[in-house]
Design goal:
alpha+beta, 41% helix, 11 strands, single chain, 2 domains, Jelly Rolls, Arc Repressor Mutant, subunit A
Length: 240
């Protein structure tokens, strides 16, 4: 499949360069000057992925680094027994593949329609090595990924199902806010099975927990997400 963006509105937007990118201010690209952004734009190939289409496949060659510009990507590991462990969800502004070698250690696929800037790993690495500010921003990104991984380990630890679901919803609210979408309504492009696989729960447990939280008027289930009605109460649950 040719993943280049189709001509039309998307093509016109891409033609404006990285300065017109809506994700620039909260991605690693924010560390670059206008001239450096122009250089980066020259190295990028705009691509589109349909829902369920893979960006990376665990164990296969990973020659490309992606900067997600729209949509949501599911990151997961296939365990030896065939089970799937979701390790995260990439949102606009997130880079995929920065910390990987030539072979992908995880799989990544699109949850919805995803657009991204694709870079050759070798070319991007050479650019990063020549730009100290970009390297510093990459270091900050790596630290953020580490913090998310530590939070995930806590979620899979000694927390109840309710605490896990509440922590997940609050974490997603913070992540959407970081990219300029602060709201009591939290978009959830992933399905309940994805949430269950991320939290180490069954889909039945996730569904029952969400239903109970809605019945207690802690949340309101809306199309494609939830509204956090009692945010302070949820914060208390998360802090327990």
């Amino acid at each position: 499949m040719d993943r280049n963006l189709t001509r039309g509105h998307d093509d016109a937007l891409v033609g404006q360069g990285c300065l017109a990118c809506g994700t620039r201010s909260f991605s690693v690209c924010a560390a670059l000057s206008a001239e450096e952004l122009e250089l980066l734009h020259g190295l990028a190939s705009p691509v589109r992925f349909d829902p369920k289409e893979p960006l990376l496949v665990q164990g296969q060659s990973a020659p490309t680094v992606y900067n997600i510009t729209s949509g949501t990507v599911r990151l997961y590991i296939l365990l030896p027994d065939g089970r799937r462990q979701i390790v995260g969800f990439a949102l606009p502004g997130d880079f995929i593949g920065l910390s990987m070698r030539e072979t992908a250690s995880i799989s990544a696929d699109a949850l919805d329609s995803v657009t991204a800037c694709a870079f050759s790993r070798m070319t991007y690495s050479a650019l990063a090595n020549s730009k100290p500010f970009l390297l510093r921003r990459l270091h900050d990104t790596a630290n953020q990924e580490l913090a998310l991984a530590q939070e995930q380990m806590m979620l899979l630890g000694r927390r109840s199902a309710e605490e896990k679901v509440v922590c997940f919803l609050l974490a997603m609210q913070r992540r959407w806010a970081r990219i300029g979408l602060a709201s009591v309504t939290v978009p959830l492009p992933m399905g309940r099975q994805d949430i269950a696989d991320f939290l180490g729960l069954t889909i039945e447990t996730v569904s029952r927990t969400l239903t109970r939280l809605a019945r207690d008027r802690v949340i309101l289930i809306v199309p494609d997400g939830v509204r956090l009605v009692k945010g302070d109460h949820m914060a208390m649950i998360a802090a327990a």
